[in-house]
Write a structure and sequence with these properties.
The chain has about 375 residues and is an all-alpha fold. The chain is about 80% helix and about 0% strand. It has one domain. It has 16 helices and no strands. The N and C termini lie far apart (about 50 Å).
Length: about 375
């Protein structure tokens, strides 16, 4: 068991340092490491874990790290998988927050990201192709996946699409008489609105209020970094008045361009409003619910897969999750692949992924170096 714990620790510390690109890219890198290279789980098991993370609140890639750590090394792996994925990003964000407060600006990383982002698109695309061959078991599942992709690009609610995909597949396979009408209604179903915020306002920064506010966000938040932005603005700009809009946008930008989970934005916000104690409490609070949700949901996965009816539901959720992943990739690609150089980088990374067993970490490092070199040569 000690050897497995060490494996989990090494892997997720590494990913916490080099996993740029947001949740879709993180999941692609995890799939390469635990399915393709280390063979800890099969693609089917990986998809089941991914489907479950999409059904619970919190950051999906962090929850995948927690799930995979538990699969490999039990309870110690559950704790270390998540913690080792979070801590490197937290420390990087904390350093940037200190620089921000001291010098009033965030360090630029545009040159490195210019080369990294096209590589990330190739990594995500390769993972989606491999996972899609496992997930798309029938024409029905293919149709559901494409429908979710289209609706996600139209900004339909993510949770509604996941639940709708699962319920449509379950209902149609069960042969319900009203399956066509029911399926159409369920796919378009939108999730309930977010929980209301507390009514009480704070005049001065309170560590207790800070902790409880981030605990609430981590417990109810579904969706992307843009959804996180809405929650943070509602609480920290409008309700509490602890941040300005400019500070909030800078905090979200730091969370976006640093490696690891985007939710480390909480670390930056906590440091701005309450220094080192605030940063640590905010980080703990926003990620704590993920560990609880994974611990509670993980034992349910074999039961869901073991039943034909709920297995159909999970199949639907899995292809819906891939549809959402594809939609995110399309949106990221528009921003990442902007000229002939980035097209060439993406194609080269894709060719290496398909033709070799190269570790994606080397591709990320190579992309950063290429971006820095290109910007230096082009001025």
């Amino acid at each position: 068991m000690n050897g497995r714990v060490a494996e989990v620790t090494r892997l997720f510390l590494k990913l916490g340092v080099i996993a740029f690109g947001g949740p879709a890219a993180h999941i692609a890198m995890m799939r390469e490491e635990v399915v393709r290279r280390r063979r800890w789980v099969s693609d089917e098991r990986f998809l089941d874990l991914l489907g479950m993370t999409n059904l619970i609140p919190g950051p999906n890639s962090t929850e995948m790290a927690i799930h995979l750590g538990y699969v490999r090394a039990g309870w110690p792996g559950l704790l270390l998988g998540g913690a080792c994925f979070i801590v490197p990003a937290m420390l990087i964000v904390l350093a940037l927050a200190w620089l921000y407060v001291r010098y009033g600006t965030t360090p630029a990383a545009t040159a490195a990201l210019y080369g990294i982002t096209p590589v990330i698109i190739a990594i995500i695309a390769q993972a989606m192709w491999a996972l899609g061959r496992t997930a798309v078991k029938s024409a029905l599942l293919a149709v559901v996946g494409v429908a979710v992709l289209a609706l996600a690009l139209l900004s339909v609610n993510e949770l509604g699409l996941l639940l709708g995909g699962g319920l449509v597949v379950m209902a149609l396979r069960a042969g319900a008489d009203r399956r066509r009408a029911l399926g159409a209604r369920l796919v378009l179903l939108a999730a309930p609105g977010a929980l209301g915020t507390a009514a009480s306002a704070a005049v001065a920064v309170s560590l207790g209020t800070l902790f409880l506010t981030f605990l609430k966000i981590g417990s109810v938040l579904y969706g992307s970094g843009y959804v996180l932005l809405a929650f943070l603005r509602n609480d920290f700009v409008d309700r509490l008045g602890w941040l300005t809009d400019r500070q909030l946008l800078d905090a979200v930008a730091v969370g976006q361009f640093t490696p690891g989970p985007v939710f480390t934005t909480a670390t930056f916000v906590g440091y701005l409003v309450a220094g080192w104690p605030g940063a640590l409490l905010a980080t703990l609070a926003i990620f704590l619910p993920s560990f609880v949700f994974v611990a509670l949901s993980h034992p349910l996965i074999p039961r869901i897969r073991g039943s034909r009816l709920t297995g159909c539901f999970l199949d639907g959720v899995n292809v819906a999750a891939l549809g959402l992943m594809a939609a995110v990739t399309v949106q990221l690609a528009r921003a990442a692949i902007v000229d002939a150089f980035t097209v060439a980088l993406a194609l080269a990374a894709g060719a290496l992924l398909l033709g070799t067993r190269i570790n994606s970490a080397w591709l990320v490092i190579g992309g950063a170096a290429a971006g820095l070199l290109a910007r230096r040569l082009l001025g």
